[in-house]
Task: inverse folding
């Protein structure tokens, strides 16, 4: 084998995130709704029946299934299933920057519009309630940020004898900011808050706020 064959092989590949095959992949949708002559963002409160994160505030969305052709298809499917809206009313679905979480997830956020919002009928198995927040709130309000430090916990059989420093190896810890919004008693936090904050930053310059 020569270097040309190696380079040719590399040119045939599309670069990806190393190790992403083992990541859980999710798609979420930021629903824009026109109400009372203003743009609102719709949020869900997860049903208390759910095993994971019951009662937390989130966007419509969920895991990308093998039957989903793209992350966008997953975002539309999940939104339709959770909010009971037909897919043709979920329009202008547009990607924003995706998120690689230190928890082993890749989240693909999309923003778009839900037409005929009066037809929304949440799936009560997944959605406890829905509510809306004016877009201007996020354009005018900076989130609170609180720092988390994530540490390293090696397995009991970790081969310390193979690394310099052994059990005293100076592991690098990861610090992340958790975002919080508190709107009329509704606490929007975590990844949902980080995504909506980033969305507001993207569109900020187009609004005189």
Result:
């Amino acid at each position: 084998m020569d270097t040309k064959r190696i380079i040719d092989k590399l040119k045939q590949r599309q670069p990806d995130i190393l190790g992403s095959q083992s990541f859980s992949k999710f798609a979420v949708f930021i629903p824009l709704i026109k109400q009372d002559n203003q743009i609102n963002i719709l949020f869900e409160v997860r049903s208390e029946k759910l095993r994971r994160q019951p009662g937390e505030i989130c966007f419509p969305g969920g895991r990308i299934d093998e039957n989903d052709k793209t992350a966008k298809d997953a975002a539309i499917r999940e939104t339709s299933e959770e909010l009971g809206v037909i897919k043709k009313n979920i329009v202008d679905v547009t990607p924003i920057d995706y998120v690689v979480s230190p928890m082993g997830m890749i989240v693909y956020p999309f923003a778009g519009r839900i037409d005929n919002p009066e037809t929304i009928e949440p799936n009560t198995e997944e959605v406890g309630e829905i509510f809306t927040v004016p877009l201007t709130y996020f354009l005018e309000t900076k989130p609170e940020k609180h720092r988390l430090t994530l540490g390293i916990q090696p397995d009991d059989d970790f081969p310390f004898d193979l690394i310099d420093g052994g059990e005293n190896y100076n592991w690098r810890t990861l610090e992340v900011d958790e975002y919080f919004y508190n709107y009329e008693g509704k606490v929007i936090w975590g990844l949902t808050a980080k995504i909506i904050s980033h969305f507001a930053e993207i569109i900020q310059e187009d609004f005189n706020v």
